[in-house]
């Protein structure tokens, strides 16, 4: 056996062994890559499902129970979505009757849970002081009847009373104040009070107290007289 033949035989054996190792290595890499890829797909799928679930939870609707009384065709308790307005509840209640007067209502106001909405008649608005006194008397009778607390009575925080104490003085909210409450402000009579209510019904809630000067009849002098007594 010559030297050349021996080396040729060794080269062939080494080549065969290298080829086998290459095939085995490629197969092992393929298995590893396939397993990793499957796991990545599973993680991505799971992540998408989690994100979808979180989005569904975040967008879950919130509902409120609202009681509407007075001059609507079908008074009662209605379920409405969060961010609904007073006008939306009125429509659910079969809309207004012919005797309804909404001049003292903020139809664009957002409702809250357990809110009570009272739609007054023209006669009640015309005699609003008497109406409020009667309503207050009924409320006190409801709360104190037989010395039993009645949670179903209309409470102050659910009515249209919107005065609050700020820095030691009483201020009136120009966004939710009633006709009578607005008329308590210096220099504000029935005409200007109605103009304020009409403005917020058409335009929406006041963003700041200075916006009050946009109301017809409210000039700089009137505003200066009442700015210490108003809030939004």
CATH architecture call of the domain at 161-232: Orthogonal Bundle
Number of strands: 6
Low-confidence stretches: 156-168
Q: What is the CATH class of the domain at 161-232?
A: Mainly Alpha
User: What is the name of the CATH topology of the domain at 161-232?
Assistant: DNA polymerase, domain 1
What does this structure look like?
This protein is of the alpha/beta class. Among the domains are: 1-45; 161-232, DNA polymerase, domain 1 (Orthogonal Bundle). It contains 7 helices and 6 strands; from the N terminus they run αββαβααββαααβ. Strands 2-1-3 form a 3-stranded mixed beta sheet, covered by helices on one side. A 3-stranded mixed beta sheet has the order 4-5-6, with no helix packed on it. 17% of the residues are buried.
Question: Quick gist of this model?
Answer:
This protein is α/β, with parallel strands linked by helices and 232 residues long.
Give the tags.
single chain, 232 residues, alpha/beta, DNA polymerase, domain 1, 3-stranded mixed β-sheet, 7 helices, 6 strands, 48% helix, elongated
């Amino acid at each position: 056996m010559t030297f050349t033949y021996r080396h040729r035989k060794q080269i062939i054996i080494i080549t065969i062994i290298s080829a086998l190792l290459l095939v085995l290595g490629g197969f092992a890499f393929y298995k590893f890559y396939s397993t990793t890829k499957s796991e990545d797909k599973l993680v991505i799928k799971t992540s998408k499902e989690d994100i979808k679930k979180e989005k569904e939870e975040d967008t879950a609707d919130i509902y409120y129970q609202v009681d509407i009384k007075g001059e609507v065709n079908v008074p009662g308790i209605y379920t409405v979505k969060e961010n609904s307005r007073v006008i939306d509840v009125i429509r659910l209640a079969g809309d207004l009757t012919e005797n309804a007067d909404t001049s003292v209502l903020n139809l664009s106001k957002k409702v809250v849970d357990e809110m009570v909405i009272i739609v007054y008649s023209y006669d009640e608005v015309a005699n609003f002081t008497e109406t409020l006194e009667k309503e207050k008397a009924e409320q006190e009778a409801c709360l104190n009847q037989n010395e039993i607390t009645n949670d179903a009575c209309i409470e102050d925080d659910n009515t249209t009373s919107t005065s609050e104490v700020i820095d030691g003085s009483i201020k009136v909210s120009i966004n939710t104040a009633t006709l009578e409450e607005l008329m308590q402000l210096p220099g504000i009579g029935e005409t200007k009070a109605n103009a304020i209510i009409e403005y917020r019904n058409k335009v929406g809630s006041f963003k700041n107290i200075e916006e009050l000067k946009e109301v017809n009849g409210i000039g700089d002098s009137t505003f200066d007289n009442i700015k210490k007594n108003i809030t939004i």
